[in-house]
Amino acid sequence: GHSRLCWADLLAHGLGRGRYEGGTDAEGREHGFGTRVYANGNVYKGQWELGHYHGFGEFVWKEEVEDDRTGHKTERVCGVLACIWEQGRIAGGAVKEGTYKWPGGTIYKGQFAIHNRGIKPNGVGSLTDCVGTSYVGHWKLGRRSGKGKQIWSVAEFYDGMWEDNLFHGWGLYHQREVWYNGAFIKGKRDSSESGGRECTLNNGSESYTGQFKDDLRHGLGRCQYEDGRTYTGNWRDDQWDGYGTLTWMTKEKAVGEFRLGKFTDTVLFFEAGSKEPMSRTELPRPWYEDEAVPWGELEAEGSDSEEEAGTE
């Protein structure tokens, strides 16, 4: 609409001449420092040369807002751009630089491009919003792309690779007690394209090193638990699944196939230091207590318990 900033061949202007206050040359053209208020409300304040923006200047454009209740129309600022100008055009060729401010308090400082008659962060720059969230890094036409760091609070940040505003590539994410150093694909933890490089996740009670897929532990990995247990082996959808070894703090071990986080009848149990498996009747009950083996079960998967068999 006519209330918006108009861009013509990268020239910023308003509709109509409006009014001007400031320096002029012998022919009456804007020259030196001055302010022009255009008929549509847009304002340029800064350096001029022979009637063109030239040097440092700030351009403010406005939009017309209609009150739904009264029907009255008022103007409000919809953007402020401060940058260097050359003969009426934003300086810098394809790579331009400046400061852009939104009405709500969000500020962008850095490189940008003119795209679809608008300004888009493009290149390297920093953005800080009104609640304190900040991003410093690379942009591509208004989207975080490339290396960058975003800080939400003192307890949450991400430092790594981005693509189309999503974590994508290798990065470090921290939120309170959670630390993840690893690969992402389209915003999810995923090491499918990391070339075998291991990821690490620590949430305060568990420490995992291994592979991820679709935001879950998946593939080969090793997890150490708060109670001293360690599981090393295959994972599927965040659970032990496949061949693996569960080691207790007291060095007893369960070795074999796991399914959906539970033992199968192929699992063999070993006392600390022993190479000979124990029979299931010899197994100490504490090994199977929920607090000791939350993902295990008393009987092997697929077998019948005494109660299920009808014995007493």
TrEMBL record:
Domain of life: Eukaryota
Comp. bias intervals (Acidic residues): 298-312
Keywords: Repeat
Region (Disordered): 275-312
Database matches in Pfam families: MORN (PF02493)
Stored InterPro entries: MORN (IPR003409)
Name by which UniProt lists this protein: MORN repeat-containing protein 5
Species this chain originates from: Heterosigma akashiwo (Chromophytic alga)
